[in-house]
Amino acid sequence: MSKIKKLRKAIFPVGGLGTRFLPATKALPKEMLPVNSKPLIQHIFEEARASGIEEFIFITGRNKNAINNHFDHSYELQDILGEKNKQLELDLTSNWLPDAGSIAFVRQYEPLGLGHAIWCARNFIGDEPFAVLLADELLLSAEPMLKKMKDIYDKNGGNYVGIMEVDKDQTSNYGIIDTANKNEDLVKITSMIEKPSKETAPSNLAIIGRYILQPEIFALLEKASPGVGGEIQITDSMNKLLETDNFHGVKFTGKRFDCGRPMGFLEANIAYAAENDAGELKEMLKKYI
Ligand code: G1P
Q1: Which stretches of 5-129 are assigned E, i.e. beta strand?
Q2: Which of 29, 66, 72, 264 has the fewest Cβ atoms within 10 angstroms?
Q3: In the CATH scheme, what architecture does the domain 9-163+181-189+206-261 have?
Q4: Biological process GO annotation list (predicted)?
Q5: Which band of pLDDT confidence, cut at 50, 70 and 90, is reported for residue 2?
Q6: How far apart, in whole angstroms, are the C-alpha atoms of residue 211 and residue 200?
């Protein structure tokens, strides 16, 4: 068996326009929307770091500078907090920052799709495996989902996507996988298709926004033609990759919040508030419902 290369790098595609959240996202990147006072992108970054990722590559676009600034020191704010001895607030601004030199921002000039965004990171990934985390999917679980996937990767190598069951009516919102062993936690994937209708979907197992991929995907992305929605879809190239390499789905068993939708975002905030202070939340909600 060939040597399993260490998984060290992660890509965060954050170039999306966030049209489902207008007008909030006219000037504010959707990835900066807060869940429990913390921007979505910081939640996802922390999941990656807690999973052992050491290098972080953000694929950004125009109007996304707030993300760059968030992952930097804020000297004026830190000075003021320091003078006032506000240690807790000071820690919240900066003690979670990645080490200098372990973070990179790459511009995706045109929004040509998720596959294209990932391809834009090819020179920074080189010949190594890498993870991809989609910032609008918040996953709540005791063990970080990417860590669960990485532990399996570290033993076996290959390619992985996070998967979970969705309603049959929802398949046209996701990449859907096919497998012979649907009921297991780790499934061998036999094919994948992006956003199939419920009539044509091979299963109801949807790809959620966590991936571990081998660098061979870049050669496939290079040649990829636009797929669903006229976009270069990562699912199409992954479907080609599984013809020559191992590809598995890892089931997610925690709570998933689709924070790209206003109701999903609200639910994530409620879930976090319930964890912090269920009593206060209940009292507040009673006023309205
Ligand atoms: C993307 C992927 C899709 C995946 C989904 C998860 O779609 O293309 O395969 O199931 O994320 O949220 P998007 O939501 O960007 O349309």
Answers
A1: 9-13, 34-35, 38-39, 55-60, 103-107
A2: 72
A3: Alpha-Beta Complex (3.90)
A4: UDP-alpha-D-glucose metabolic process
A5: low
A6: 24
Among 40, 138, 139, 174, say which to mutate for ligand 1: greatest number of ligand atoms within 8 Å of CB. Answer: 174
DSSP E strands, 55-108 = 55-60, 103-107
* The pLDDT value given to residue 192: 97
User: Which residues contact ligand 1 via a Cβ below 6 A?
Assistant: 114, 134, 137, 174-175, 194, 206-209, 233, 235
* pLDDT higher than 60, residue 1: no
CA 31/CA 42 separation, integer angstroms? 9
Q: What is the dihedral of CA 85, 87, 43, 30, to 10 degrees?
A: 0
> pLDDT tens digit string along 95-139?
999 999 999 999 999 989 999 999 999 999 999 999 999 999 999
pLDDT of residue 249: 98
Q: Which single residue is written with the structure tokens 């044509």?
A: 200
